[in-house]
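Re-run requested by the PI after the first attempt was lost when the workstation crashed. Everything re-entered from the original request form. Ligand of interest: zinc ion.
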Amino acid sequence: MNQLNRRQWLASLTFAALGAPAYARSLQTTINTQDPARSPLPLKDYEPRSMLRVTETKVERARFPVIDFHTHLSFTDRNAKPEKALFRAKREEILPVMDRKNLRAMVNLTGGYGAALEENIRYWQAPSPDRFIIFTEPWFNKASDAGYQQFQADQIERAKKAGARGLKVLKTLGLYLRENGATGPLVKVDDKRFDQMWEACGAMKMPVAIHTSDPEAFFLLTDRFNERYEELSAHPDWSFHGKDFPSNRELHEARLRVIARHPKTQFVALHVGDSEDLNWVSEWLDRHANLSVEIGARIGELGRQPRAARKFFDKYQDRILFGTDAIPYGNETPQQIFGELLYEIYFRFLETEDEYFDYAPAPIPPQGRWKIYGLGLPESILKKVYYENAARLLGLSS
Ligand SMILES: [Zn+2]
C-alpha cells in the first residue's frame, strides 16, 4: 500500500460502521480532527510533540569508518528467466552519501543467485570491491526438487567463485517457504536439506547473514493490546498470528539448532537475533562461538532499553555488527529508507547520550509509539561495531 492508500484504508476502518464511502469520509476526518469539541481523536491523527528541552546532537558523520552490513541495494525477480537483478538505485546516487557519512563499505545482502547474482557483482562490486560487497541467496524456488542438497551446496561454491562474499537467508525460511510451492507445509529452518549449504559456507569462509522470525507482536492478535497495532494495521500481511505459523520461540530455537550443528560456519543473526529479549540473545552468544548479531532496523528496540543495551554492547563488543537494513527509496518503512537522515539517527544512537529522540525519520514512530535514548559508546567499542567486527568476518583488512 502506498501512503495515500494506507490513509484511506485506515480511514475506512474508522468509518466502515457508518456505511459511508471511505474516501469522502476521510476528507471529513481531516476537518473533524481540527475541532477539539469532536472526540475521540483517531489514533492515526495523533502526533504528540515532546515538550522536553533536551540536548540534540547532530552527528552528520560517523566518528570512525563504517561498514553497513545490512542493506538492500537490489532484489531479484525470481520469476524471470534467467533470474534478473532489480536495482533500487544507481551507484552514483549511493556513493556520495557513503562518502559524506563515512561509510567505507556497504554489504548488499540480497544479491540473489544465478544470473541476478552475476549482474549484481558486475554492477556494484567489480568496479569498487572496497565499497560494495555482494552476498548470494539460496535458490528457494528449487528447494523441493530432488537433489537440492547437493545443487545448493554447489551453488555456494559457484557464487564464491563469481565473487559473492557471504550468504543471506531471508525470513522466508521458516515463515513463507513451503513444500512444493504454495501448497505444502512450511519448511523448517533446521530442515536437513540445507545442511550441505551451511557446511559449504563454512568451508568457503562465507558468513551467513540470517533473518529468522520477527517482533513477537507480529505473532499475536492485532488487537488493542498489541504494541504494534498501528504497524500491523498498515501492513496486515506482516502478521504471523494463527494459521500454521510456528511461534517466535520455535523459529529461534530451530535456528539455534542449525548454529549448533555447524560450528565451523559463522552465523550473523540479523536484527539482533531477538532484540526484545537481550537476556536470551546473551545466552545464545555465550553458547555459540560462531554467532554474531547485527542491529539493523532494531535501534527502536535497543534504544528503549538503553541500560540493558549498553551492558549488552559492553559484554559482546566483539560480536555486534553495524547495519541499517537500508533500502533506497520507498515510503513504506521509514525506519529503513536509505539516506543521510537514517544514518544520522544510528550515529546519534550509538555515539551520544541524547535522550528521548525518534528512531526513524517519520512524524509518527512507525514501529511503535516510543522514543529512544543514546548509548554513548566509548571509542574502542564504536570502532569494533562500526567496522572491525564486520571486517574480520568478511576477511577484509582493517
Ligand atoms: Zn533486511
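Saved to the shared folder this time. The pocket of zinc ion is lined by residues 70, 72, 325 (CB under 6 Å).
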